[in-house]
Specification:
303 residues; alpha/beta; Nucleotidyltransferase, domain 5; 2 domains; five-stranded mixed beta sheet; two-stranded antiparallel ribbon; 9 helices; 35% helix; RNaseH_sf
Length: 303
């Protein structure tokens, strides 16, 4: 059976039921007809792991049980497999999305060499590093979960109107935040206006602005303007298809979670809610710093 790519591997420790441990059998996944797991680690099994590379698929109890049956010749009920998975420290989670076009080598290069070099430059030149990102929100994007009776799907009222709003924010590892909110589409004019505000806000401190490769960030007009203001601001692009390396993505995720709990009926109400979110976070430098301490953004702690 072909396993998933090895970008993320999860170890399932080797457990032995007492009746097989006594017989000296080294079995990775144990079978009990009742579906109950009674593990007993033997001296031979305690130091070994079976690497199940569970990346790239949605692994359910049924799938893992089928894998165990195929690889090790043992059978589990779904309930029994669920108990085993919980016993070894796994939980059923909504996975992060990763683009198949992402280049692991480019991401490693950014994390281990490019970004640390940028930090050194910032320190030597007295510059500030900001991570920025643009986000668009619409009322039909605002979804979440709520409690309800079993078998009865709860209904949540929302507007049927179609409208959207855009925002862009920039955050620094020391806890600063700058933002802008606008109703029009995200274009070069909006982006450069935001850059001008950043320059004014940092009052002479050079800015290293880290962001993704959005076409607006790479447009001809943007390149010309950046060349004219090279002493004040520089753009540095993250690897393609690697939004998880941008701490500002977590700001956007928080924004959408907050909006999901609100009843939005019009553009003005949405704009008020979006601005309120950014203003609140702007006053919480500790929360902003926390965006740089997530598992995929902790590399920025070198700044």
């Amino acid at each position: 059976m072909k396993l998933a790519p090895p970008s993320i591997t999860l170890s399932i420790r080797m457990y032995l039921p007492a009746r097989r441990a006594n017989a000296g059998t080294d079995q990775t996944l144990a079978f009990k007809s009742s579906g109950k797991v009674h593990p007993s680690r033997s001296s031979t099994s305690s130091d070994h792991c079976s690497q199940l590379e569970l990346d790239g698929k949605l692994w359910t109890r049924r799938k893992v049980a089928a894998l165990a049956r195929r690889l090790f010749g043992v059978s589990y009920t779904e309930r029994g497999m669920g108990k085993l998975l919980r016993r070894i420290g796994l939980s059923f989670q909504r996975p992060d999305r990763r683009a198949i076009e992402a280049n692991p080598e480019a991401m490693t290069e950014w994390v281990e060499r490019t970004y640390p070099a940028l930090v050194e430059r910032a320190e030597s030149e007295g510059a500030v590093i900001l991570f920025a990102d643009q986000v668009g929100v619409r009322p039909d994007h605002l979804s979440g979960s709520t409690w309800g009776r079993v078998g009865q799907t709860p209904a949540v009222a929302r507007t049927g109107k179609r409208f959207s709003l855009n925002a862009m924010s920039a955050i620094s590892p020391r806890g600063d935040m700058r933002f802008t909110v606008f109703a029009g589409r995200f274009d070069t004019t909006e982006f450069l206006t935001f850059c001008k505000r950043l320059i004014a806000g940092y009052n002479g401190t050079k800015i290293f602005l880290v962001l993704d490769g959005h076409p607006v960030h790479r447009s001809k007009a943007t390149k010309v303007w950046m060349a004219e203001h090279a002493e004040q601001i520089e753009l540095h692009h993250l690897p393609p298809y690697a939004p998880h390396l941008n701490p500002d993505e977590l700001v956007n995720a928080d924004l959408k979670r907050v909006l999901a709990d609100k009843t939005i009926t019009g553009r003005d109400q949405m704009e008020l809610a979006v601005r309120s979110f950014f203003r609140r976070v702007q006053k919480l430098p500790g929360q902003v710093r926390g965006y740089f301490e997530a598992p995929h953004t902790i590399y920025t702690s070198t700044n």
